[in-house]
Amino acid sequence: MNRIISIDVFRALTMVLMIWVNDFWTLKSIPKWLKHASTGEDYLGFSDVIFPWFLFVMGMSIPFAFEDRIKKGETTIIIWAHIVLRSIALIVMGLFHMNMEMYNHETSFFTKPIYVIISTSAFFMIWNMYPKTDQKKQNLFKALRITGVLILIGMFLSFSGKSYDGQEIGFETHWWGILGLIGWVYLIAGSAFLFIKNSLMATFVAFFVCLGLNIISSSGIPYNIFSWQSDHWIPGSGGLQALTFGGVIVSLFLIENRNKDNIIRLYITLCCFGLISLSSGLLLRNYFVLNKILGTPTWILVSLSTAVFLFVFLHWLSDVKKILAWYKYINIAGTATLTCYLIPYFYYSLRTLSGIVLPEFLLTGFIGLTKSFIYSLIIVGICWGLKQIKIQLKI
């Protein structure tokens, strides 16, 4: 299959915006529509659609990535092993980041910034994309990976946390963290697609099964099969998986209509899909609030519609009109996405250790938003610089 540049553009843009909105916690007096809705609030802020966009574009990448692996001669077992290992890596990183939120400064051996820096550095040691052509350094690369694993084990054993009610706790699964949720979604969606392959009908069935599960979960109805399972035992409760299957569906439409003569039909099909998703989400608003934290079907469907409409625009801009001059400045965010996501953990930790405090005018209103956007571009620039010296995560 020819590479669809708009998928990379979508991923890069989403990553830049994710870094931007993740810095909003440092700002004051910014518009409400840019921020996350609070728990239970019937509202959709701009920040609430960024994570769905990421899950959507992850789904879009699956058919093309799997096709490339099949062309390289990889068997179904090898591809599934890759899915499992990739998911485990994301779940491990997500659990560490989630537990960092509960870190106990009073009883821990390390301060939180040091703990974050050491743990995140271990991620890079384990999952860095070391050059395979440099045969002389292969033993060094293996040693770095082993050292990274040992460091993570040490960080796991040394962890001391504090619950929200002040109780001392250890390293636990309170939730999975953003990366952990992505890992679980990829495991489920990737494994399912490996079975159903490029069947649009089967993908729609998977989408509606996941959406139905989300509706059940959002209604407060337990869906555990066995008594030893928790009431809502699937991470994401179907909703996050539905977003990813929505991305798979769009890619399958794309594959069916990739001929330039079919571009109008493609856009009509995708816009209809987006409109149906939007209208269904608004209809369900009579029964569920529109809320990201609660993961309601309303949020799922409305967010999916915004992703579809955005992709149509980016496809027209990138693949049809070839307007890509702006993209070259952020393209690393579309190919080294995980590296981009992790760099801010170093930044915030180093800033805390240095004690540097920015003037309040740089943290307020429009100037603050501009500062945060420039910061996101700097992170992308650092990611580009790291790639030049062969530092880039690949799982």
Describe the structure in your own words.
By secondary structure, the chain is mainly alpha-helical. The chain has one domain (5-102, 172-388). The protein is 63% helix and 1% strand. It is built from 13 helices and two strands; from the N terminus they run αααααββαααααααα. It has helices at 5-21, 50-71, 76-100, 112-127, 138-158, 177-196, 200-218, 239-256, 263-284, 297-320, 332-335, 337-354, 365-388, and strands at 161-162, 168-169. A two-stranded antiparallel sheet has the order 1-2. A hairpin with a 5-residue loop joins strand 1 and strand 2 (168-169). The protein is globular, with a radius of gyration of 21 Å. The mean pLDDT is 93.
Q: Mean pLDDT, rounded to whole units?
A: 93
Order of helices and strands: HHHHHEEHHHHHHHH
Low-confidence stretches: none
Tell me the major beta sheet: 2 strands, antiparallel
Rg, alpha carbons = 21 Å
Strand order of the largest sheet: 1-2
Total domain units: 1
User: Beta-strand percentage?
Assistant: under 5%
- The number of helices is 13
Brief summary:
The chain has helices spanning 5-21, 50-71, 76-100, 112-127, 138-158, 177-196, 200-218, 239-256, 263-284, 297-320, 332-335, 337-354, 365-388; strands at 161-162, 168-169.
Short descriptors:
395 residues, mainly alpha, two-stranded antiparallel ribbon, 13 helices
